């Protein structure tokens, strides 16, 4: 640990003479800035996607786990009687917090995304829907199904299990893919900066030979490269993170469209997480350049 702290202290102690070892401009500088900025921009979106998928999975799990729907399909002259019978059964069933029969306007709103706003619900043989909210003690779904089949022949209980599980699994996998993308971006940053550092070391082979002749140590030379590329990565990642945050804030909010994908973004303390991207990029650049510089200096010896 002390060794790494010593290296960090040497690296971030400015030395104008050592800084001249690494070219301040050129293709390596542009490559490092661009790659760090681009990867940070993508990392912000991958992080936002992963967190949004986690919130979505939690919301689906909580909302659908405590709700059920009863669908009553019956002739028009029997629909009201069966609805009343189903409501009576539900009110007598333990484990139910509340029940409510959806009116025509609510059922029209449910069908509107598929059939348009002018659907004549009153003239169509649409089943009556009853919303059931379960209590904390839980609901015996199988027992309720048996009682409904005996007293309300046209009633079918849907506890959303077949919908909830695949939706939660999909959201969880999407969250996992977001973190996998972040790890791949970290690896890509390390690879890009390693290539850039190797190119800079190879281009300055003669300068390194002269420095060795006048007494410069490999630590002194390596620190110059590590310092330059670490600061470049930090600057590029900072700019990329800022651009990513501005792009995230420009996305439409949930309230504007009500769609699922409009929830992409950060909420609460999660806004702190993107601020960790630039230091992480700098740490990756530090380690990658340190390893590349030591290996290259050994080969040039």
TrEMBL record:
Q: Where in the cell is it found?
A: Cell membrane
Tell me if Cell division is a UniProt keyword of this record.
yes
* Any single GO CC term annotated in Swiss-Prot or TrEMBL for this entry: cell division site
Residue ranges spanning the membrane: these are 33-57, 174-197, 233-251, 271-293
Boundaries of every ABC3 transporter permease C-terminal domain copy: 182-298
- Chief location bin: membrane
Which InterPro entries does its entry note? ABC3_permease_C, FtsX
Superkingdom assignment: Bacteria
User: Pfam families, alphabetically?
Assistant: FtsX (PF02687)
UniProt keywords (A-Z) are:
Cell cycle, Cell division, Cell membrane, Membrane, Transmembrane, Transmembrane helix
Q: Which GO terms describe its biological process?
A: cell division
The membrane-topology field of this record reads: Multi-pass membrane protein
Q: Which PANTHER family match?
A: CELL DIVISION PROTEIN FTSX
Tell me what this protein is called.
Cell division transport system permease protein
């Amino acid at each position: 640990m002390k060794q790494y702290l010593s290296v960090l202290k040497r690296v971030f102690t400015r030395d104008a003479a050592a800084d001249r070892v690494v070219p301040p401009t050129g293709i390596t500088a542009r490559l490092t800035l661009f790659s760090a900025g681009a990867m940070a921009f993508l990392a912000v979106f991958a992080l936002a996607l992963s967190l949004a998928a986690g919130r979505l999975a939690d919301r689906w799990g909580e909302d659908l786990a405590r709700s059920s729907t009863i669908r009553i399909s019956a002739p028009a002259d029997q629909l009201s009687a069966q609805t009343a019978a189903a409501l009576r059964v539900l009110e007598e069933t333990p484990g139910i917090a509340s029940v409510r029969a959806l009116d025509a306007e609510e059922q029209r709103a449910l069908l509107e995304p598929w059939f348009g706003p002018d659907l004549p619900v009153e003239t169509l043989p649409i089943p009556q829907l009853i919303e059931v909210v379960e209590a904390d003690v839980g609901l015996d779904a199988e027992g309720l199904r048996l009682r409904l089949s005996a007293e309300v022949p046209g009633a079918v209980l849907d506890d959303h299990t077949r919908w909830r599980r695949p939706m939660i699994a999909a959201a969880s996998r999407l969250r996992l893919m977001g973190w996998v993308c972040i790890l791949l971006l970290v690896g890509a940053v390390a690879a890009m900066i390693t290539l850039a550092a190797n190119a800079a070391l190879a281009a300055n082979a003669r300068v390194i030979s002269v420095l060795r002749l006048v007494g410069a140590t490999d630590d002194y030379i390596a620190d110059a490269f590590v310092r330059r590329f670490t600061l470049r990565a930090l600057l590029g990642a900072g700019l990329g993170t800022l651009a990513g945050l501005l792009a995230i804030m420009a996305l439409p909010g949930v309230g504007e469209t009500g769609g699922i994908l409009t929830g992409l973004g950060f909420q609460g303390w999660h806004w702190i997480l993107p601020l960790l991207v630039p230091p992480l990029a700098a740490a990756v650049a530090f380690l990658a350049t340190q390893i590349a510089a030591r290996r290259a200096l050994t080969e040039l010896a």
